Amino acid sequence: MSRYLWPLGLFVVLAGFLFAGLFLNPREVPSPLIGRAVPAFSVAQLGAPDKTFSPADMKGKVWLMNVWASWCVSCRQEHPLLVELAKTGTVTMVGLHYKDERDAGLKWLADYGDPYLLSAHDRDGRIAIDFGVYGTPETFIIDRQGVIRHKHTGPLTPALLRDDILPRIRQLEAS
Amino acid sequence: MRHLFLPIALSICALLPAHADQAPTLADDPAVEARVQHLGEELRCLVCQNQNIADSHADLAMDLKKQVREQIAAGRTDREILDYMVERYGDFVLYRPPLKATTVLLWAGPFVLLLVVVLLLARRLRRRTVQAAAANTLSADEQQRARALLAGEEKQV
User: Fold this and answer.
1) Do A29 and B90 touch (CB under 8 A)?
2) In A, which residues are within 8 Å of B60 by CB distance?
3) Beta carbons of A91 and A150 less than 8 angstroms apart
4) Mean pLDDT over residues A133-144, rounded?
């Protein structure tokens, strides 16, 4: 009997693994930057080209850095959520305007709303590489000491914001 | 008919193969470009995932190739360049993952599986030999009959 049972057992185990695999996100690549200091940079702001932004400016605050571009379709999908979040004033958001023209970015913000304190203009994608960005939108949570605590790749959803992102922010703000 | 000319001409143009932009090459020096190619084959394109950045024309792959070129120009070693990528994108960026605690199963798994199969096979073969040996043993009675048969003195019972 067992000679027939064990192939069946093997099949069940394999099927179990494959089934679990259906619910994994292959695009989710663990970032080595979690727990490390936010990469230093200084770059022109999107709205005010004569001013620069550097992550050091945000010391002492828990903040979100959201990588976006006017050509990025999923960014547009998540954007209303960020605008809503900005209205609540829960957390400061800084945009990283990624590989995009200034005019296109400004128009986009004018059209869909600007939830960001400011956007840093990463014209050639240099800064994004230091952040290990590989798919926009990406959102980083950075703590008061300037340490990256969490990274989310892909558009945020209301559920994700409520169950994952906001609790993390609250926890960081409490500590 | 004339108002149809432009749309038709445009559709024909659309059918022609698009002139693809060539990857910008720093390589007046083929040795540098060879290194870029070599490193590019070691690095995974994170956008396309199952392609290396040498083969990929994704935007990010182009940018990373540019980074590799610049770093070669700056005199970095291959090791340093790979480390730079791993620092930002994690081990996933390497096509050949390093051997460490989390990847032991990945590296050793096939050999462990092979070992298990070989052990199972050995056990099965040994058991079969024992069974065959058991099947070959004749009782005293049978042996006597066999001897008689061989001697050609079999009597019908």
Assistant:
1) yes
2) 125, 134
3) no
4) 92
